[in-house]
Write a structure and sequence with these properties.
By secondary structure, the chain is an alpha+beta fold. Helix content is 51%, strand content 18%. The chain has helices at residues 5-70, 73-84, 90-104, 143-149, 202-205, 235-246, 285-335, 349-390, 393-409, 412-430, 439-457, 482-492, 525-536, 547-560, and strands at 113-119, 125-129, 157-158, 162-163, 174-181, 194-199, 215-220, 223-226, 251-254, 264-270, 277-283, 436-438, 461-467, 475-477, 499-507, 511-518, 565-571, 575-583. The strands form 4 sheets. Strands 1, 2, 3, 4, 5 and 6 form a 6-stranded antiparallel β-sheet that branches. A 5-stranded antiparallel β-sheet has the order 8-7-11-10-9, with helices on both faces. The longest helix is centred in the N-terminal third of the chain and has 66 residues, at 5-70. The two termini are 44 Å apart.
Amino acid sequence: MKFSLRQQMIISFSVVFSVLIVVFGSLILRYNLSSYQKQSYDSMNKVVKANILLIDNYLTQIISVSKIVASDPDIIKAVTYRNSIDEIDYSVELYNQRNVDSKIKQLDVLGTITNALVIGDNYEYLYYYGSSPVRGYRFDQQEWFVKSALNVDKPIHFTNFHSSDYLLDHANHQTVSVIMPIINGNQYSATHTFLMTDFNHNPIISDKSGEDNVEIAIYDGTTPIQFANNSNLSTFQKNEVAKHLKKNEKSFIISKSGSDSVSYLIINEPSLVSGWSILGIMPLTEMEEMKSNTSKVVITIIVTACIGVIILSVMISRSILNPMQSLLQRFNQIASGRRDITFKYSKSKEVNLIAETADYMLKSINHLTDEIVEEQTRLAGEQLKALQHQINPHFLNNVLQSIKAMAVTGDNHSISRATTLLGKILSYSVYNPYEMVGLKQEFEYTENYIALQNIRFNDLIIFDAHCDEQLEHFLVPKLMIQPLVENAIEHGFENRKEGSIFVSAEDDGDEIYISVTNNGNSIEIADMERINEMLSSRDTYTQSKSIGLLNLNQRLKSCFGSQAEVKMLSKGGINTTIVITIPKAGRG
């Protein structure tokens, strides 16, 4: 499919600038979304770190109070006693029990510890604080306890959510505990005595969720410890959170799927005290709405800008191409043959330059056309004159008179020869008189012409010719030499009984010289100079004398260019020579 220049400009401008606008708009949209997402991330990160600080402070207080209790000498003494005997002395035990109860009540200082148990070597409770425990409950059979209490790399450990079925009134209650060993510094063997403190976990997150639209959740590894009561994460999304935590990712997005209509941005930061993962969970509803609204605004701007670019492209192309269209219309008028076209000037320098150049070219074309018409007119006249001089009526009359005389005398052989020669001459000169022939053929015609003239002069004209072998097929205008020979006979041999004519063609490398020399009457120097001056004149058609030479000279220039010429020479008043010069470079 071909497009006009205007269509190409409109399409090119529109496509290029539209692409730039789309790219620029996309970058702006991407930057805005990235900036908003970064701000959201930074804001949520601050909330998460603030919560971590509060949680760590809270847990540190629990650990501090628990350490005070676990390291109390009376508690260590009571635990050591219980672990070291098989039969209990209840008087001693009663004393120890009162001391333990008074010491363990130190846990009341925080007001958030619900229960506390001292667990002995047999993994059953020895003493307790708070709700009554179940007798004979074996903690070493509970996975959550074994995982925490027997972790030698981390003596103080926070459990994840676990059942409080070790209490009589547990009612399927879930709780979180901190477990730390009770160590007797006087014993060299390791003991398995622990203080397990259950604490209220609600203060950790109950007042921290919802700030800045951020939820706080606590995970122990991939196991959730606590979610806010108003958490909207589905079970599927919580499972996705666990997968990301397993990869230890610091921030990630949980996409909406199925019945989950909201995506979430989640930031994961560890608690240095508990080792738990503190998650900040923010719904992306606002971000998605902002993204949608921003996208609509940017797309509207892009579409509007693209329409503006197209309109601007049309206006620019019109302002540029209208002057060009005007030029094109004038060129079409010139092509249709009109020569009276004028060019209007516009505001564009380039278009004005084209108009000036075209105007100059049109004037040159008109001038050249006039010259060609004039040249064709002159050439037609020259061809008519050449045709008129092909067969001189006077010459023809003389030949016929000679044949008549031969008929009276009965010289049939001479009559046959004369009529044969006359037929060849007439055939050569009449048929295709303007074609180009080889020099050899032109020389043969000249020889026939002189032979016919000798009938009149009784063989008193001596003729000789020489043509370089490589020039025999060199093409020249037909009847080029005959006018020169005829001129030599009429003027050179006038009032003379005999004479000689020598015709030659020589190759001089860049030029070819054809000469016709006669030893007849010599020409006056002044006449020779006058003729040569006429031959060298640019306008030879207005001359009334030496028509044959002038016509030949013009024919040669038409065929071989301006360097071709005819020139007359005379040596010492003895011989007269007509020299034709033909440049090889101008051969047509």
